[in-house]
Amino acid sequence: MISISNINKVFNAGEPDEVSALKEVNLIIHEHEFVTVIGTNGSGKSTLLNVIAGSAATDKGIITIDGTDVTRKADFQRAKYISRVFQNPYSGTAPGMTIAENLLMAFFRGGARYPVISLKGQLKDKFRTQLASLDMQLEDRLDNLMGSLSGGQRQAVTLLMAVLQTPKVLLLDEHIAALDPKSAAQIIRLTQKFVSENNLTTLMVTHSMKNALESGNRMIMMHKGRIIEDFQEQDKKNLTVEDLLSKFEDIRKAEKLTPELIDSLKNQYI
Amino acid sequence: MELWIGAVNLGILYAFMAIGTFITYKLYSFPDITIDGTFATGAAVASILIVDGWNPLLVLPVAFLVGSLAGFITGFIHTRFKIEGLLAGILVMTGLYSVNLHIMGKSNIPLLTSKTFVSILSSVNPGLPPELWTCFFLVAAMLFFWILVSLFLKTDFGLTMRATGNNPVMVAAQGVSVNRIKIFGVAIANGFVGISGALIAQYQGFADIGMGIGSIIFSLAAVIIGEAILRSRSVFVQVLGVIIGSVIFRLAVAFALNVGMNPNDLKLITAVFVLFTLVATGAFGKNSSGFMKKVYNWLRIKNRRIFLFLGLTILIAGYFIGKQMIFPSERNHMVKIGVVLANQSDILTKTRDGLYSELTRLGYVNGKNCVILEQNAEGDIPTNLTIIDHFIHQKVDIFIPISTASTQAALNKIKNRPIVFATVANPFMIGAGTSPVNHPPNITGVYGASPIKELLAIFRQMYRGKVKIGVIYNPAYPNTVSNLKDMKTALENDKDIRLEEATVSNSNDVYQAALAIANRDVAAFVLINDLTVFNSFESVVRVSKNNEIPIFTCDAERLKDGALIVYGYEYYGSGMQAAHLVNRIIRGESPQNIPFEKYKILTYGLNYDVARELSTPIPAAIRLAADSWVRDGILTRPAFTLPPDPELWREKKVALFQFSSSSLLDMSMHGFNQQINSFAAERSIKFKMEEYNAHGDFSTGQSIATAIVEKNYDYVVTFSTLALQIMASVNKKIPHVFCAVTDPIKAGVATTLSDHQQNLTGLATPQPVEATIKLMRQVFPFAKKIGMIWNTSEVNSEICTIKARAACKQYGFQLTERTITTLDDLDDARKSIVSSGIDIFFISGDVMISQVIPQLAKPMTQEKIPFFSNTAEDVNSGTFISLGADYSQVGEKAAEVFIGVVKGTNPKDIPIELYVPFSLGINLNLAKEFGVAIPDTMISAAKIVVRQP
Fold it and tell me: Are residues A200 and A258 in the same domain?
């Protein structure tokens, strides 16, 4: 479904603070695969997501989605194939507009919008039913402003918006990182539900090793702009958080990480 | 009332623009300054097309498209090149200035005589006050537009636009090109602004290059006020708020003017008003101050917006109620005046026009303090009665029959209400008493038989011995019969004249009758006043020309139509006299005690064109005695003036309106005031002068003009071209005298000097460009090149330059021009023109450049280039020779014209006068430096001479 070959991405090229975010990355994601991505800070996992979504351009390499070369296409042109959920719950919705109006935006994802009024009767009923599936009592608040919802509720609506028109690829960019634990759990549950119901090809970046292990059927691990590990379904099942930590330990050895850094990694990821 | 409705109309017209700003500012958080330019673009496109003959409504879509194009460019620059929105707007706005000038071809296009939506509306006005009538349509149009825009914003596309402003990241993730949506939004917003400009140009009667400046502030104010008053999530309510905000803003301006605040403070008032609105809005938020909270709690008002709204409503309502309580008489004392005319002939319509103009001058304004009903019997005598019946049913207070037939009908029907007749030959013959003082108690009026005896005496000066004269008449009119009787009486003493008669029963018979009489070998037609004959006067003229038989008549109006000699009363004056009688009755006099008046204004006219065509020699005595004449198709006659009456001693309210401050305008106003004061002191007339200054702002000017009309001034005097244009478009009634105007024809208030908007007259004072260039030739016989710098955005400057081109050709100069639009370019223009090798430098009537004469004079002196200009005072700033008009004399002359109007002459009868009192300034020090000798005669003629201290 997604094929990435020889992708390079350098930020601030030629400047003293030059960063190679992605180095010669190759990745093929098959249809219906649910891939989780973990990695240290600055490992390039978010950049990987952004180059797939098109909000960051690549310096080199080719990206195809469903057989189409999208390397030179802008983010809004790729929206036909891709839907996204952002880390910041405020990014995925328009706070000054009602829930129904936000859903309508997603309803036409990738398609044309005409000067006709679609938001009425039947479509509203449809939205109401779908909101009910979130189990957050939002179905009666179709005409409330998005800005009046909590972060967790917003992220749930964003998730619903992402699957409203079944996407070819669903990109989740640390979408529970900014939420309280209870909401985060709820969103993860919803994510698994939507992905399995629609059998979606999914790429989920996360900072939680636990979530990364519990979700999906494939996991990649990134470090310094490279994919250093790629666990297929069988391998992934047998992995534990401790295994992952020891992987990071190996990196430490290789790169002479200080024990303090290891501690901070532990604090961050477990 | 007109003031308020006018403000509402302006508010609605500006609301189109405010809705545009709502889209950019509220939806995209992008205060789009492009609109300052687009507004004028819309006006420019509309006016150019309208002058070209387009339908004034069809120009609106064009203005929309052109405006959209400008917006598209702003949006494109902003999104594609990632240039800050404000900066992108400024770039396009700046560029548009030149584009607008190109579209218009000059900086000001008058539309006063063109077909605009206002003139179309007024042509189907059933009789409502024009502003109110316009208001109905504007409200309807705005209602439609409101629904259209709101519905659009609720569509999928509209929602996408709103979402784009709200969260562009999210919208992009949903597959929307944020850039495209932004460009589209800015484009349609500017399209709306273009429509607004197109409408305002039509409403105010002209387009001007400076129109849009500051629009963004007014629009923002409208949006902010609207938001404060109507806060809602509903798009419908939001857009409605913007419209209401725009109207409230205009009402506030009108209010400020009406309570007599100095218009100079309007900008400050605007700022305070917007600030107040913002603070008040803040008070409704969560962080409202303790005091306000207490007030609200005490009032137990939950919805605080309603509180503000109620407050404003109470304030406005309170004002109206208060006004009504203070001036109740204004409302309750509406005198109903019924005017009935027998037909459409000139004699009667002239009488009516004189009546109306004088009534207006006496303070009676239809729809304001009186109601004037007018009906015309269209030549059908019984219809006069029907009309009188209708008037009685309408409870008319005073009847004014114009013509004998109408008076007769009135006399028959009405016994207990006053009748003032006008233009009746012999009221005694139709039963209105036996003498001017002995008449029925309810009737008085203005009458007079045609001076047929005097006309025959003039005829006798030309034709001696035995002659035949021809007369044509309709015996059905009592008036005619009376006139014929007089004629025959006069002829009894002169047996050598034989009268050939022919009778007609309608206009179609006149030609035949005239031919028949011509066949009887008459020396002349001597026509008594007869409506039927005069309705078909052309037929008589045709026979007259073909048979070389001149026409003599008692109807002064026929002079221009082809009569050789006229000797008769001016029926315009008859109407004016009747107006005074009406005034006396309204003020409580009984008609019984008012004697009938005879006509007072007489015309003795001679048509030189006819004399030449018929090869008729005119004795010198007649040529000298005639006070009016037609020569080469142009009618010259003295102004109609009534003898002074007590009305003159009433205090007159005069508005003096100046568009901006400049030394020339101040001088002319000073000269005017001085002259008026001495006149007033001499005649013990009181004038109450009030000065208005728009300080260069168009909307302020517009509001001032509306206020002047609303406040019912007796006269208005304007100084400067823009003041004239703005006033002329708003005011069609109050007599208006203008001065300090270069070219009233270019300004659109006149087509020729004698054919101008009816309620105004004044002075045209062009810069003496040709005389100056002639002077250059005299002083520098060998100079070759003249250099001129001028500002393309000033009409006046353009006119002067065109004149200079012609004069240069005439006096053998070569003209080098540099144009600028802002003073920033002046330095470059000067350097470039100096390096092109000019011998003489010349600045003419350019207001902008005239402000910086000293900066130009210094380098010119250094370069040893003589500097000429068109304002004498410039020599004090370093020019060499400056020949201009003396504006204090212009002001004094304007005062004379004004006094003529005060004395009762109708402005429409006073041709605009070309008046350039020369005022010369010379710098003798520079003359020495340039090595030229200035003749003593020139030095003694100069008003200002600069010489070695």
Answer: no
Provide CB contacts within 8 A for A54, sequence distance 6+: A70, A73, A74, A75, A76, A77, A78, A82
A162 and A268 within one domain = no
Please, are residues A25 and A225 in contact by the beta-carbon 8 Å criterion? yes
Tens of pLDDT, residues B95-131: 998 898 888 877 677 776 788 888 888 888 887 877 7
Is residue A84 situated within a structural domain? yes
Instruction: Tell me the pLDDT band of B237, cut-offs 50, 70 and 90.
Output: very high
Tell me whether B179 touches chain A (CB under 8 Å): no
| Residue of chain B nearest A104, judged by CA positions | B156
| Mean of pLDDT values over B844-856 | 85
Task: Tell whether A268 and A190 lie within a shared domain.
Answer: no
pLDDT digits (tens, 9 = 90+) for B154-198: 999 999 999 998 888 888 888 888 899 999 999 999 999 999 999
Distances B121 to A2, A170, B133, B365 between C-alpha atoms, Å: 66, 60, 8, 21
Same-domain check for residues A7 and A74: yes
Dihedral sign from CA coordinates of B931, B934, B935, B940:
negative
Element (H, E) at B532: helix B531-535
Whether residue A11 sits in one domain with residue A48: yes
Q: Is residue A41 part of a domain?
A: yes
Sheet holding B602-607, edge to edge: B497-503, B467-473, B524-527, B551-553, B565-569, B602-607, B628-631, B634-636
Question: Which residues partner with B597 through β-bridges?
Answer: B446
Write the pLDDT tens digit of every residue in B27-37.
888 888 999 99
Determine, yes or no, domain membership for A109: no
Cα–Cα distances (Å) from B48 to A67, B106, B512, B727, in that order, read: 56, 10, 49, 21
CA B714 to centroid of chain Cα atoms: 15
- The 3-state secondary structure of B449-504 reads CCCHHHHHHHHHHHCCCCEEEEEEECCCCHHHHHHHHHHHHHHCCCCCEEEEEEEC
Q: Which residues from chain A sit within 8 angstroms of residue B158, using beta carbons?
A: 115
Residues B610-617, mean pLDDT to the nearest whole number = 88
Cβ contacts of A53 on chain B, cutoff 8 Å: 173
Subunit contact A83:B158, Cβ cutoff 8 A: no
- pLDDT tens digits along B369-413: 888 888 887 766 666 777 777 787 778 889 999 988 888 878 877
pLDDT band at B807 (very low <50, low <70, confident <90, very high): very high
Over pLDDT 90: what percentage of chain B? 30
Question: How many helices (H) and strands (E) in chain A?
Answer: 10, 10
Contact B554, B529 (CB under 8 A): yes
Domain membership of residue A48 (yes or no) is yes
Q: Are B827 and B791 in contact (CB under 8 A)?
A: no
Amino acid at B228: A
What's the rounded Cα separation, in Å, for the pair B800 and B865?
A: 21
Cβ B175–A92 below 8 Å, yes or no? Answer: no
pLDDT digits (tens, 9 = 90+) for A123-170: 888 999 888 888 888 888 888 888 888 888 999 999 999 988 888 899
Question: Which CATH number characterizes residue A168's domain?
Answer: 3.40.50.300
Distance of alpha carbon B383 from alpha carbon B381, whole angstroms: 5
**Do A215 and A160 share a domain, yes or no?**
yes
Same domain, A261 and A226: no
Domain span holding position A191: 2-94+151-238
DSSP β-bridge partners for residue B657: B692, B718
Other CB atoms within a 10 A radius of the CB of residue B529 amount to 26
A251 min Cα distance to partner chain B (Å): 36
Count of the separate structural domains present in chain A? 2
What average pLDDT score do residues B488-493 get?
A: 88
3-state SS class at B756: strand
B233/A118 touch (CB, cutoff 8 Å), yes or no? no
Q: Do A19 and A87 reside in the same domain of the chain?
A: yes
Q: Is A117 on the interface with B (CB under 8 A)?
A: yes
